[in-house]
Design brief:
about 475 residues, alpha+beta, 2 domains
Amino acid sequence: MTGTPRSPRRRASQSASIAALLSFIWPGLGQLYLGRPRAAAAFAGPLVVVALIFAVIAREGLDVFVVRLLAPGVALPLILVLLATAAWRLASMADAFLTARGHPAGPAHARRPGPTWRTTGARRTFSVLVVAVVLTHGVLIGGTLAIARFGNEIFVGDSSSGPSLRPGQTGEPQLPHETPYVTPKPGGWINTLLIGADSGMGYDHALTDTMIVVSANREKGQIAMFSFPRDIARFPMYDGGVYDGKLNSLMTQAAAHPDQYPDGGLGTLSRELGYLLGTPIHYYAYVNLAGFKALIDEVGGVDVVNGRDINDATYQFPDGKIGFYLSAGPHHLDGRTALAFVRSRQGTGDNDFTRARRQQQLLIALRAKLTDPGMLPRLPAILDVAGQTVQTNYPPDQAADLLALSKALDGDAIEQIVLGPPYAVRPEPTTGTYILVIDEAKFSALSIRLFGDESRYTTAPASPVP
């Protein structure tokens, strides 16, 4: 007794669908399935080369690879590669499908007679695979364009005209001048000033209550963070003389009096902090604190370990609520709570110095979240928020190297320094206004310990400090 023979049309349909699916998975697999090894090698070879190049570039992680796309001239070649890869995959799928179906477009020895090309199931399967390729590569191209757009928004270059102001913003922004700063030495320290202000992106019109210098040396595998208290006053200026006001007013003062401060607001502040620290500030990043809250929310919050209870009965949230309380121990902070965490300073036992330490702690926690591979699906939304939150003149082609160094270091390995006591102390006799004056000997010792012969204090005579 013989079994019921299978329909030739059904067998052909299955073969064509399988061939197309295999070539969808990897070009050439469908041809290999059909017994065409030479065609399989021809289709598979180019994508093997592309995959190897990608593996080399992405060996430090997908997040580092994504940041490398911020460098000028990288996005367009990648888009062209994605388009060519999509076309190559479609060509391999079509060749495998048509060969299996005996279509006249296939090789002569593989043609089969009959109207099997019109088999509905096979055509439907092939169409679904084509749509999958188009959508997949469309998403990748869209993501690449989003990254390039983000790079244009956040990296503002070294133009003396400064960062672009967005609608509704005021101010006269000015970037730090490239001179007299030298290009960072190969293997040396790269110093970036982080500035945060509540006024949004209005730049020079805001008191800069958050001033953190991040110093990184990839060759040594070191990162250090220095927080400058806003109440430092009566400090020596890099161009001579003494500034009597508080440090957080210097940028606004310099912007308002260009005849006295030709380097402009941000340029004057950058040069002065570098002078006090003993090493030039090469780059800056300006952070809009309102956008910082949105960025924390976009990454799903951050995890911190609060070292002590925060009990600030006077803290006012943007929505008008009064009072911020956070117990000691581990916490997952959303954007609203994270902003209070870095702004509160009136709680019992709190001050500008404890707040500065928390600011550094939160930056390290955010770094950990942003370098988590789980953030990649959220990348377009994160980039959109970050583009409205940060502007910097840091070279985009060096950003990936900084990220790779940051990933390589555990958060505890990042040296965190708040330049309050003993580096800056209350003057004697004390006055009615709370101020701090720097102890230049301690600044000098700290600078030489970290920066070695790159520190100006290795050769500069001590400046008189009132």
